[in-house]
Amino acid sequence: MHASVTRVLIIDEDVFAAEAMLLLLARDARTRVVGQVTPAGLPGWKGEADLVILGSAGPVWDAALLATAESLAGLSPRPCFICTCTRLDNHMLSHLARQPHFAGCLLKAEVGYGLVSAVCLAAGGYCVLTPGLRDQLDRTLFSRRTLLIGPNRYQGLHRGYSHNALEVLKLALLHNLSQYEISNELVLAESYIAQVISQGYNDLGIPDLVNGEVTLEELFSDQFLDNQLLIHQFGELTHNLLGMLERRSQGLRSPRFRNMGTLAYHLLTIPAISEWQQTG
Question: Is the dihedral of CA 36, 39, 42, 44 positive or negative?
C-alpha cells in the first residue's frame, strides 16, 4: 500500500514566495496544495489540511505571526505546521516550538528545492530544521524526533558545471522549461542545452537505471523518507522508457519521451538528511 498524499495549506504574506512554494509542491506526487492564503485570510478559509507552511515576509517573526500559528488550533482536524523565514528570531521561535503541533522551522535560503522532502518528513511525524538553526536552539524544545535538512543534489553540482550549465539545468530540470524556451532565455544554442541536460542525466544515474545497473529503490533509498509514491510513479515511467528504447532498437518509430525531466527533478531535489544529535 502506498503512502498517502500530504495536503498542504500555504500561509504567507509574500505572494511571490507563496507562488514559488506552490510550484514546487504541485510538481510532486507526494503533496497536494489545498489552499494559499495570507494570515488575514485564514479565518475565511474552509478546508482540511495535513500540514501548514507558515511563512514570514520579513526578516524576523512578529507577534502577528505567532497569533496566526496559535489560530491554527481552530482548524479541524488540526494540522501540524512548519515555519519558513529569512532570519531566525530566537525568542519568537521558542514560543512557536511550544505549540503542540509545531513540526519545524526552515531558513528559506537553506531549504531551497528540498522543501517538499521537508514537508513530507514533517507530515510523517518528524520535526525538521535547516542547519543554520542548529547551534541557536535548545534540543529539548522539540518533542518530536528532529532531522536536519541539508543541501540537495542540485546544490552539490556546482563543482562540475559552469555558470551557464547550472542555469540550463535549473531551467530545464527544476523549472520544466523546454530547450527552445531556455535558448531564448539564456541566448544559448539548443545543441549546447541538449548536451548539458544529457550530462545532467548521466550524473544523476538515469542511464544506469535504464540499463538495469541500479534500481529505483536504490536511487530513492532514504532511511527517513518514505518514497514509495515516487517509486510507484517512476516504475511506470521507466517501463514506458524501456519500451520506447526497444522500439527504437528495432528501427520502429516511437513517441518522444517527455517524462525524463520529472525523474531528474526528483533526484536533484533530494536533500541530505541527518538526525540532530545535540552534544554538550
Answer: negative
Residue 173 CB coordination number (10 Å)? 24
d(CA 126, CA 147): 7
Maximum separation of any 2 CA atoms in the chain, in Å: 67
Cell of 69: 500559528
What pLDDT, in 10s, does the model give residues 220-269?
Answer: 877 888 777 777 767 666 556 555 555 555 665 544 445 678 888 888 88
Distance, CA of 134 to CA of 138 (rounded, Å): 8
CA distance 21 to 54: 11
Tell me the CA distances in angstroms from 60 to 84, 166, 230, 241, one per residue in order.
Answer: 10, 31, 35, 47
Q: Which residue has the cell 497536494?
A: 32
| Alpha-carbon dihedral angle through residues 184, 188, 193, 199, given to the nearest 10 degrees | -140
Phi-psi region of 148 (alpha: psi -120 to 50; beta: other; left: phi over 0): beta
Q: 3-class SS at 196?
A: helix
**pLDDT single digits (tens) 113-150:** 899 999 999 999 999 999 888 776 766 666 778 899 98
115-123 and 15-26 are packed helices; what angle lies between their axes, rounded to 10 degrees? 80
Domains of the chain, each with CATH number or no CATH: 6-144 (3.40.50.2300), 155-268 (no CATH)
User: Distance between alpha carbon 51 and the CA centroid of its chain, in Å?
Assistant: 14
Round the CA-based radius of gyration of the chain to a whole number and report it: 20
Residue 154 and residue 157: Cα distance in Å, rounded? 5
- Alpha-carbon gap, residue 232 to 217, rounded angstroms: 10
Handedness of CA 49, 16, 86, 149 (dihedral sign): positive
Nine cell digits for residue 202: 548521466
How far from chain centre, in Å, is Cα 233? 17
